[in-house]
């Protein structure tokens, strides 16, 4: 009888431990920990000085560099990663001994090397010896094959210059879980409906009614899924603004808990009119963005709501095992 009692205790402990372990996805790896995806890859440029070709940006040698020809700007240089890859960070370098200069540039991506979309809007970056003449630029994870640096100004020389273009892959992550899913909101303003916030069109947007904060918009993922990151976007070309908001989650669409604390997020051209919000991985069906302030409007505004989760670990909600039963071979024993 003692042996039987011990076996049932072991089974009970195993079931309890399994239930506690279900449903906690592993966190995605940071992009900075990965290899340089552009190393040794083919490179091309709008123009190049005879001695300073585009291939220098992927040769791993900081002493060599690309320099555009003709003395005119803008000019661009790009790396071909060989296949579509999810990326979210680049590092641009100049030779270590060069004097301080600024270059104004934007980042672009393309699947075919012909049609390019903006990864990071134009901004001015300082390359200084004290910072190793390096600039690291992060942006929302994007699937792309070609990564282009488009340079429009250089205070150090009348040409575009770059020693190395390093490209980092995004950590393991799902596709946009909100794409094509149902969006609802606390209110909307005319044609600026919730559906605009996941139509894949940055030119359309959702807006709440004026002067009625707080306001929210949410996505129904259709099932409980692992999530750990949300990307919020506004239309390109808008004036800079900050919106104060927090993220919440719910399993049933009624009872919500906080994923993040309320905070003001900046949307501007330098940041690609985007805010990326990461949080501890959780399993949920509904993700809500709750707005309480907007410095440029009396309403909540959002062009795209993107939701991502890990691809490793348990990414589905836990379910209780079926057909579990306790037997009682004798009174007080299981």
Describe the structure in your own words.
- By secondary structure, this protein is mainly β.
- 6% of the residues lie in helices and 43% in strands.
- It folds into two domains: 31-169, Galactose-binding domain-like (Jelly Rolls), CATH 2.60.120.260; 182-308, Galactose-binding domain-like (Jelly Rolls), CATH 2.60.120.
- The protein has one helix at 2-21, and strands spanning 43-45, 66-67, 75-93, 101-110, 117-127, 134-154, 161-162, 164-169, 182-185, 206-207, 215-233, 241-250, 257-258, 263-267, 274-294, 301-302, 304-308.
- Strands 9, 11, 12, 13, 14, 15 and 17 form a seven-stranded antiparallel sheet that branches. Strands 1, 3, 4, 5, 6 and 8 form a six-stranded antiparallel sheet that branches.
- The longest helix has 20 residues, at 2-21.
- It is globular.
- The termini are close together.
């Amino acid at each position: 009888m003692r042996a039987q009692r011990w076996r049932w205790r072991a089974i009970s402990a195993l079931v309890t431990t399994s239930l506690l372990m279900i449903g906690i996805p592993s966190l995605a790896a940071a992009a900075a920990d990965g290899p340089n995806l552009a190393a040794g890859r083919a490179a091309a440029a709008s123009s190049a000085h005879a001695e300073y070709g585009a291939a220098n940006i992927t040769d791993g040698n900081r002493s060599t560099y690309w320099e555009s020809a003709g003395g005119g700007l803008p000019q661009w240089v790009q790396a071909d990663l060989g296949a579509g890859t999810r990326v979210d960070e680049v590092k641009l370098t100049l030779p270590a001994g060069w004097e301080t200069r600024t270059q104004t540039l934007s980042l672009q991506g393309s699947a075919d090397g012909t049609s390019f979309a903006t990864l990071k809007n134009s901004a001015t970056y300082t390359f200084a010896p004290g910072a190793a003449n390096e600039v690291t630029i992060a942006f929302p994870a994007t699937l792309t094959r070609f990564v282009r640096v488009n340079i429009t100004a250089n205070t150090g020389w009348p040409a575009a210059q770059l020693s190395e273009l390093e490209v980092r892959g995004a950590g393991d992550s799902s596709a946009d879980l909100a794409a094509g899913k149902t969006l609802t909101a606390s209110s909307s303003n005319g044609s600026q409906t919730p559906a605009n916030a996941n139509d894949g069109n940055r030119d359309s947007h959702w807006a709440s009614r004026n002067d009625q904060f707080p306001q929210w918009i949410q996505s129904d993922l259709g099932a409980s899924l692992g999530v750990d990151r949300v990307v919020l976007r506004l239309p390109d070309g808008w004036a800079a603004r900050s919106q104060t908001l927090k993220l919440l989650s719910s399993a049933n669409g009624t009872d919500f808990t906080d994923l993040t604390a309320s905070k003001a997020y900046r949307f501007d051209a330098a940041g690609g009119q985007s805010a990326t919000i990461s949080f501890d991985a959780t399993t949920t069906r509904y993700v809500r963005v709750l707005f309480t302030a907007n410095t440029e409007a009396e309403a909540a505004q959002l062009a795209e709501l993107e939701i991502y989760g890990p691809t490793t670990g348990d990414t589905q909600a836990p379910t209780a095992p079926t057909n579990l039963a306790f037997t009682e071979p004798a009174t007080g024993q299981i």
